[in-house]
Amino acid sequence: MQYIYTFEEGNKDMRRLLGGKGANLAQMTNLDLPVPSGFTISTEACNAFYKNHNQLNNETLAQIKKALDQLSQNVGKSFNSLSQPLLVSVRSGAAISMPGMMDTILNIGLNDQTVVALAKITANERFAYDSYRRLLAMYGNVVEGISEATFDTVIEDMKHQNHYQSDLDLTTNDLKQIVSEFKKVYINKLHREFPQNPTEQLLAAINSVFESWNNHRAKVYRRENNIPSDLGTAVNVQMMVFGNAGKDSGTGVAFTRDPATGEKHLFGEYLLNAQGEDVVAGIRTPQPISTLEDAMPHLYAQFEAIAAKLEFYYRDMQDLEFTIENGKLYMLQARDGKRTPTAAVKIAVDMVYEDLISKQEALMRIKPESVQAILYPEFDEKDLANHDFVASGLPASPGAATGQIYFTAETAKAAHDEKQQTVILVRQDTSPEDIEGMVVSEGIVTSRGGMTSHAAVVARGMGTPAIVGVNELQVDYQKRSATISGHQLHEGDWLSVNGTQGHIYIGQIKTADTVVNENLSTLLGWAKQESHLGVYANADTPADFSQALRFGADGIGLTRTEHMFFKPERLLEMRRLIIAENAEARQLPLKRLLKMQQGDFYELYKLSAGRSVTIRLLDPPLHEFLPHDEKEIRKVAKQLDVTPTYLKQRVDSLKELNPMLGHRGDRLAVTFPDIYQMQVDAIIGAALQLLDENVIIEPHIMIPLTALKSEMSWVKDLVVNRIEQLLANKNVCLEYTVGTMMEMPRACLTADKIAEVSDFFSFGTNDLTQLTFGYSRDDVGSFMPEYIKQGILPADPFQTVDVDGVGQLMRMAVEKGRSIKPQLPIGVCGEIGGDPKSIEFFEQIDVSYVSCSPFRVPLARLAAAQASLRNNRVVSQTVSVKSVN
Ligand code: ADP
Ligand code: MG
Ligand code: MG
What we know:
Structural class: alpha/beta
Oligomer: single chain
Helix content: 40-55%
Strand content: 15-25%
Number of helices: 35
Distance between the termini: 34 Å
Strand order of the largest sheet: 12-22-21-14-15-16-17-13
Bound molecules: adenosine-5'-diphosphate, magnesium ion
Number of strands: 31
Radius of gyration: 34 Å
Shape: elongated
């Protein structure tokens, strides 16, 4: 069994066997880059070590000896030599990088004799003893388990006695004394000497790396991140090179592109006359890498060429570690660099233009969530560092916001309109009456409610950061104050919220705004070419729609007409309509509403510029439009010119025990046909208006809440008859479709029947999930978190489709529907339409498009492209990659 591979023998594809660090050291060696010689003890040796009761087996030991001899020969140095002493580093590296494991011991091979030799050869006694004390501390800590603090205290005491500021003030004599103190630590704690034999040091270090694979922290990390425990770690043994050998030596780290912005230039830091971790340890302030160009121009040019070669070879941005010894450059590590979402997008797009990767690869490299992160504002990092969050709740709508708090829609609106304040609306919960206050708010916080509560849904639709279900928040509307985790806040006080994480901060934290940049829109353009699913937006207002178009939506998949009724003058007419007792009394408000709705639709159609717009007829229970408390009732009664008693009586008569399962959706059409007729008049009227302007619109009308074919058939007849009558009156032709929401389990079960009378389907996943589970979505907050914590539910089914249950109903509905109409357009509208995992499933069951809130359109677009690429939907035309020279 081969347990050991020299760097010449490996390559980048051997991560599983050599670990990431080892595979890349080998790859760099084979690209003829200057890498100090060494070898990798494989992950198989690690597993053999565990089989052999935590000891290196004889075969591994024999191979280590051989590899060491070969290394000595190659570099002309050997353990214990006084003329050419060999020093090595022992560096762990698993296939997946993992915190908590032992990482690196430098300077193995130093002892009381070789330290003297090293001092002489380098003519730098200070450096030699500095290296020795590092070995003593690292080895003591990692191999022998002596706390770092034990060693640190020795140094701190020394600095204290001499009034030194930093480690750099330590003299050679001080370092010699530290070395002898460190050796005493071994005697005191372990009752034995620090091993003087380099081979013994080396073997003990290798043992420790292997053992660290199974330490508690590593095990916990693997469990939490689903990393198999039989992967094992590899160990790299590598000749030391010295960045601390003098003025023309140094050590540094650099990225091949800027990891914050993605700009294509070297980005990093270095320190002259320093070793290993000094750059990150912050003992001295490192220099920006650009200054290396002046200090050592040749070397900088060489490094730039290496960086380019590595990027070319790995086809991704690299994070590099290097050391300069006496003017000679050595590469010590290469790996794919971590980057911000903004940089990730820029780098992926640039690399396509540079012919390094294909468009498909670029698409697959970006996490859909990163796209979201680019679009939402975040807190200014520096400012955030001065604040701790005081409470948290459900992260209902992402992004960061800061503002002055108000507890009612009116006061929020007044503060915004009259005092030009930025406002955070803080409430127990919100209802449709609060819309105007929500619109002007930068952020929304509620003490109650779940991820699909009114506040959450509306906030996400508007792209306003929101946190709901904040248990530590109590709002006192009377006193105009609130308590958050014991902090008392009053109207007008500053509050900051991070809706991405659900964290609440007291005070004002600056936000940094972000927009869709050119790179993102390029990437989204490619995503559109690759995806089989259309991506539409749920938009209720022209402002929403414009936003959706800016984000590249294919059209509107859902316009909820009821949201148009919440503007004050319309709400009044709506209320007049609802309290009317007969068809005659409904006429006047209907006429006024018709005019306003037609105007809305005209505007939407005009904005659509040829894109499809699907309008849903009235859905919510009527009493949602009515006032509830005494004060409101009195106010509204006055506006409507009726007595409060009368209004109260009408409100009571419309009250339902279970409104979500009550008189709503197409049930309203059957009992109040004139409301749907008015909406149809407005839709067709707007389309005909545009026809007069030579713009052809094809209206798509959607009927909510259908459960029965006979019901759909009844409502469709109502709608179609009205349309035909309107067209006949004007003597014109117009294409239109009438389809249904699929949101009742019964509708899915009988989808073939319903397809006979539907031109399209659109899944309403919120209601479908609610009804399939029997969970009231407004009340899930009380038990859902516990269900998820206990592992009873893998995820909130209102956020990620429940494939096994709700998903099966959807699959069945698609199959049954298409068995009748093979070309039946089928969409998904609702929050889940913007969830990447759910999108992958919708792609599999052959849904035609998803429709989500405008702010999720870019993320959904990328997720759709990835789903299509993963499901091999689209023939990919891979861009060729130039061969490596
Ligand atoms: P980590 O995985 O924590 O980055 P490394 O194994 O990369 O640990 O080691 C940390 C640092 O130690 C390296 O960046 C490098 O500066 C230094 N180092 C490791 N091996 C050597 C070596 N053979 N010669 C010189 N410096 C080394
Ligand atoms: Mg490293
Ligand atoms: Mg619904």
